[in-house]
């Protein structure tokens, strides 16, 4: 039996699907245990219960592997990065007390406790906490993850479909190496039998500058949207205004700075097989057809 955090979400969903295909029994720990269960009786859902460690230990007891995807994209509704780190510590400590055999932790490329970006430094502290538990573990660090339920790529496509202009922040020459979510899931599950303490980046086979990435999406969708260069502060301001209308957080300064600093790249050899170019061609009729709200999905899912 394995436990996956966030099976009703994005990355956790595909890890769960891969485990079920392998004949594994799966439990999930989720923020919304009453959310519609796409797996039916195949996956039991339990709450995180950070405030009730005894219940969390019971949920984790008997697990061969814990696949952890828990983190937050931005602070919202009273949940801060600091609180998310406390919750992570509780989760890992409960896993230790429950006798979990191994933890496969989903991090992010270039995570570091010394990063000046809270998202990446928080991921670095998660990795440090994991190492200090003494539990056998592996860390998987994906780049930019794409797939049908992706929010970032989908919403870029949504805006390209609807607006005559789309911003390129700065030069647009900074690179991305997108990884397909199903490839990431396979890489993560493979680490359950890998070397203890290993750190593996999950990287797709293609590298684009951000400008090339946007041009590819624009061309694939058959749009004539003009890509215009603008300073990053203007882009952040534009994102906040758009977010007010959409009642969502479209783009954070943390994310933009990470993108421009090429945080979503790796020096390791690509280990994902799916080309973003091919996936986009196969999904060009549906990607960006509707807007995907981060807040509705993760905080107000019942209204999404």
Can you walk through the features of this model?
The chain is of the alpha/beta class. The chain folds into two domains: 2-145 and 178-202, Rossmann fold, CATH 3.40.50; 148-176 and 205-266 and 274-303, Alpha-Beta Complex (UDP-galactose 4-epimerase, domain 1), CATH 3.90.25. Helix content is 39%, strand content 17%. It contains eleven helices and 13 strands. The protein has helices at 11-21, 53-60, 81-98, 118-133, 152-162, 181-190, 210-220, 232-246, 253-260, 276-282, 294-298; strands at 2-5, 26-30, 43-47, 65-68, 102-106, 137-142, 145-146, 165-169, 175-176, 179-180, 198-202, 208-209, 226-230. It has a seven-stranded parallel beta sheet with strand order 3-2-1-4-5-6-11, sandwiched between helices. Helix 3 links the parallel strand 4 and strand 5. Helix 1 crosses helix 6 (181-190) and helix 2 packs across helix 3 (81-98). The longest helix has 18 residues, at 81-98. The two termini are 31 Å apart. The mean pLDDT is 94.
In short:
This protein has 304 residues and is α/β, with parallel strands linked by helices. 39% of the residues lie in helices and 17% in strands.
Principal-axis shape: globular
| Widest sheet: strand ordering | 3-2-1-4-5-6-11
Question: Which structural class do the helices and strands define?
Answer: alpha/beta
The CATH topology of the largest domain comes to Rossmann fold
Mean pLDDT rating: 94
**Number of folding domains?**
2
CATH architecture of the largest domain: 3-Layer(aba) Sandwich
According to CATH, the homologous superfamily of the largest domain is NAD(P)-binding Rossmann-like Domain
Helix content: 25-40%
Number of helices: 11
Query: What are the segments in which pLDDT stays under 50 over at least 5 consecutive residues?
Result: none
